[in-house]
Amino acid sequence: MNQDYIKPDNWSIIEEGFDAERVKSSESLFSIGNGAMGQRANFEETYSAETFQGSYIAGIYYPDKTKVGWWKNGYPKYFAKVLNAPNWIGIDIEINEENLDLNTCTEVRNFRRELNMKEGWYNRSFEAVLKNGTEIAVNVRRFLSLNLDEAGIIKYDITPLNKDAKIVYKPYVDAGVTNEDANWEEKFWEPLEVKKGTNEAFVTAQTFKTHFKVTTFMHNTILANGENINVSPSTIDSTIDKVQYTYGTIIAKGQTSSIQKIGGYTVSLNHENTLAGAEKVIKSAVALGYETLLQNQIEAWAKIWEMSDITIEGDIKAQQGIRFNIFQLNQTYSGKDSRLNIGPKGFTGEKYGGSTYWDTEAYCIPFYMATKDQQVARNLLTYRYNQLDKAIENAKDNLGFKNGAALYPMVTMNGEECHNEWEITHEEIHRNGAIAFAIYNYNRYTGDYSYIPEKGLEVLIGIARFWHQRASFSKDKNQYVILGVTGPNEYENNINNNFYTNYIAKWCIDFAAEQIEKVASEYPADHKRVLEKVSLSANEIQEWKKVANNMYFPISEELGIYLQQDGFLDKELVPVKDLDKSQRPINQKWSWDRVLRSPYIKQADVLQGFYFFEDHFSKEELKRNFEFYESFTVHESSLSPCVHSIQAAALDKMDMAYTFYLRTSRLDLDDYNKEVEEGCHITSMAGTWMSIVEGFGGMRVKNDQLHFSPKIPKEWKGYSFKINFRNQILKVAVNHNETTFTVDGDQDLTIIVNGKPEIASKFVQIN
After folding, report:
1. Domains of the chain, start order
2. Which parts are annotated binding residues for substrate?
3. Exposed (0-12), middle (13-18) or buried (19+): which is 198, by Cβ within 10 Å?
4. Predicted TM-score (pTM) of this structure
5. Residue among 417, 490, 675, 694 flagged as catalytic
6. Is 119 known to be catalytic?
7. With a cut of 70, which residues of the chain have pLDDT below it?
8. Which of 61, 92, 218, 287 is least enclosed, having the fewest CB within 10 Å?
């Protein structure tokens, strides 16, 4: 049974009623971020029951020493931890000399959380009865400023309901934090300096080993009935890593006492002097004031939604799901800084570590290309170019490759491999292909070829060299094979001739060779510069082509399908529909040995290949492969349902497409895989966007033109989305009677709809 406590709403995520069993899940779901930092929905006040404390800063990490049972050559020395950053939100509260703690209150009623996605704020309210008999009403609003992205703002209101109350606020900043996820239970932060002012405080600390310096700051204002009462702290307590102020107030029954707390981080990535930077942020935030900061937040989110929103009529859960996904993507990555990337948990948790997986190239780039300026997607490609030397070093030092062969890491922060499971680190080499495909996809969508001669060609050459060396010649098959790999389906390890891996290896070599020829013809100066830099000869390219032209792909002639890998049909092929539901998810119920021997698929490798290279196969081939592999896929990868939704729509299996859409869009809201308390699945959320735009909308780019084959689930009355295609904004609106294509501006756009060319301009309708 999936969780079902989130209230359906078009624009908000809402929880009603306090349940300690849901606290950690809600901490994930109600997380907020602004691209520079993020915060789980932890309570500001003390909470003595189980909780997962998490504050995160983009680009800040710690190289936690790898912990394995048996060390093997080539293991990364560390696993990069997404760090729990110093706590800026904390406010201990005493009411009539009793500590406010929802775990110890005699009654908690009318508890409500709301994450308002339209306006970008998180609100929590409740009434509580303390053990001393005092009854209070509390309302707390928190947001992380998009415009002033080093600052977060909290407004915490308390109204005594049955008697006058002495309320003591004890706001603090604290660098003495630990990680929920740590290999050796080490502390990751070294305190450096504490500074105290009248109503503001600063704790500066740095990470051990990586030496990122961070100043965590706060500024406090005490109010009564909305008016600043200019209270100074009665006491100031500090240690080497924590500063806490105490403000005492007395408020009459029915009146409201408040604290407004401005807090956040300045980091050495952006400031030579982080303390001076923090003082400037406070000055800017105080000058604007709470109401202006909130209004600026609302306006900034309105601008984001103007381009990235997807509307769905007639299905409130579907609407809530897609907006939640889009909201989290925009919270996680703004595209402003090419040093940053999109971690699989974003700012919602620590699991998986690292800031970059193949998810970015395979799933996220299409969303950012279509809903932002193309420079945002180009920054994501530049991120990989800037780490090419590390990819070459990884292939050379860890795997023994030579001559500039590049293996991009499965997980990384700075370009080094930092994933410590051997079957992933050494074998899930298909990630190289996603990086090359992203370069192709960027050029195909934006029409901007300049990235390839400037930067991308070097990446493609390094990747092609890797595949050339990784393949080996089989005398038995008289073809090239790729042995000992793990495909995207991580429920099968150390296999031979994974179809997806072999296919994308061949494609990478072919694509690299084609781009070398194109750059030679159209950008001769860049061609000369790059080939001299990497020492590439025509003879070496011919050796690549021998591998690509004679690559082996496992197939079943009898079934008319490609095989996930050699020997897949040797498994006991019991379909998922015959698997006892009590055994799901199998990764939490079965031994790893049993999972590996089963036919069950975390995500279907063959179908991932068909998704990337749809035009290489006929619809009949897609149908045969889809129907076969879908019957064995358990979708316990967050990246799986979206691809199945897109392909089901292409095959006119609309009921199935809709079911998979709901699964991908509400994966976290409904906690399908029973793990949301660890954080949300941010990168797979881009796949939810693709499920509508590429699945139901049928959007493709072919021969420099947009193609659409719109379809609509029977459960919906209509849906609409916008895309930025080559600096033209196209709105697509679909209902059961017609599809409308509207272009912003005066320039028409020729599109292909159901195979026929049409002119999309203002208010032109295609029936």
Report:
1. 6-308 (2.70.98.40)
2. 358-359, 602-603
3. exposed
4. 0.96
5. 490
6. no
7. 1, 68-71, 183-184, 762-767
8. 287
